[in-house]
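Weekly modeling sync, notes
Attendees: S.R. (lead), two postdocs, one rotation student

Agenda item 3: backlog of single-chain predictions. S.R. asked that every request posted to the team notebook include the full sequence so nobody has to chase files. The rotation student volunteered to paste the first one in as an example of the format we agreed on. Action items at the bottom.

Example entry:
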Amino acid sequence: MTRIELLKKNFQRVCGLPWDRNVAGAQRVWLAVYDKEDERKLRLRLGLFEEAAQQSGHPWHAFDLTNAFADWMTRSNYARFAESYFASPARLGAAQTAAFSDHVAQTIRARLDSEQHSESALLALYGVGGLFGFASVSHIVGLVEPSIRGRLLIFFPGVYEQDNYRLLDARDGWNYHAVPITASESEARR
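Predicted structure, as returned to the notebook:
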């Protein structure tokens, strides 16, 4: 069984458990952690996860964050900033990264607040590696937590060790109380 198949099996097990409606926002977040090398394989197999959610009786909605930074640069007040940014990326300061994080959180909240996202629905975010260097996943999750009625699934290319998550294995991680879903064999046997 491939790592993506194991991840899907573990996701299906978690998704099939009864969803407690009285949990905090952090506990409504699921982080599906996979090797960064498996990004393209995961994208090709996203349909398996959608099918698993639907078989468990949960509507699935997906949102790709891969191009979030480029979209923000071209559609926001920072469009005029884009040319100077590409000439010198070091010019991206704290104000711009904060504005970008707020934009991403607002976009995710709009999906979470829509009528489609009920207490039984799941919003899956993928392409979060595209945020690396521009925004913190943990910060964005903190901004959207109050809007999560169902579950927020984040496909997370990185590492999960001892309650610590590291995006793309590249920086110090953060301790977060989300439900981890990994491609672990032992998790699949539960």
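Discussion: group reviewed the output briefly. DSSP finds eight helices and seven strands in the chain.
Action items: rotation student to repeat for the remaining queue; S.R. to check formatting next week.
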